[in-house]
Amino acid sequence: MIRKVGVLVSLLGVLFMVTACGGEKEDASTTTVKWLTSRPVGGAIDETMREIADQYSKEKGGKWKIDFETTADRPSYLQKLKTLVAGNNMPDIIDTDPDLYAKELVKAGKLIDMKKFLQKNDYYQNFYPTALKYQEFSDGSMYTLPLEYHVEMIWYNKKLFSQHGISVPKTFDQWLAACKKLKEAGVTPISVDGIDRWPVQRYLAMPAFRQTGNQFIENLSQGKEKMSSQTGVDSVKFVKEIGQYFNEGFSATDYATAQSMFLDGKSAMYYIGDWEIGAMQEKYDAGEIDYFYMPTTKDSVTAANEFCVNSGIGMAFNAETFDEKTKDFLLYVLDHYADIYTKKMQMSPIKTELPKDVDYSSLYLRIRKDMDNTGEQFMKPWDTYLDSSTNTIVQDNLLLVGSGDMKIQDFVKMIDDSIKVNVTDQ
């Protein structure tokens, strides 16, 4: 909700001033735009957007303020967002995945069609195609703007691999064999952040992606496929198999602990994306760690250069409050975002030449080259497809599958029953 307030009102928290478009003189009032965001304060996206807002303010005269209201905890953020929307208090800008809830907002006419906006203003072609495709719904429409671009990989300890005669696995069978060999030697094969759930869910998505691309999860989420199908069972079976090689107590292991285990040499592998380049840099430069991408299977329909590529949670705009001034600011963001964001050693979803005044690491440049050579297909996280109730059931009970405390048939039945109730019967 855009509201007029006096220019002498104190700035509360982290408010940034942005002016009306074209430097137009206004009366003694300021427009405040509220952005409800789930991005960590101090993170690269947060810092970039704050810098842009501050820069825009200085250039335009200070007639706008952006009120960043941050709730980094994802479940709490979603609860807050849904409460505000239900009370007809939807913020001007929100963060959302292209998920089922976003579809509800689109159906209610609450979001700006971002694909049309980018195409109309000649910005669509400036983005990496995969970054945009990730934000699309299955019908090709797009209502969220990507602010990041990532690949996910398996990092590994080169010394531990060498000591135990292990080569970088190319197939799932080789990966499981490597894990078995490490465990038998007393080495923790993989450290996993179980508390946040999504890292374990990635392992569930891998076999299905190799067998069908994203077709299985897309159909499953719509009630057109069953978890009890062969592809579904194969996927759950893989989690059960590889779960025995996760660190002990992985269900209660948090993000920082799982990463520290790997960097301290207490685990041989760790699955995470390029957003952790900074954490990996020192060990990589010392020749202690390296990475490989998701292995394949003999019957893969997706290629070795096709794996989890994502553009993260998108930025969406309230259709009711998207006026000319907001459009002007968004265009300003599109003009300046890539340059500022890449200077922070981040991968931009907007194509850009790297600034020559920044000394990019060999690791950054290597991963950037990888991203330029990915295939057309990419593994999209399951939590962007599943309804919230089913997704919670999947994530919570998958921990039990991985720890060996739940049978495969019990898990698949639970998921099929949930989809029947929350999707098929609606």
From TrEMBL:
Family annotation (Pfam families): SBP_bac_1 (PF01547)
Endpoints of the signal sequence: 1-22
Q: Which Gene3D superfamilies does this entry report, sorted A to Z?
A: Periplasmic binding protein-like II
Q: Which UniProt key words apply to this protein?
A: Signal
Recorded protein name is Sugar ABC transporter substrate-binding protein
Could you tell me which species this protein originates from?
Answer: Enterococcus mundtii
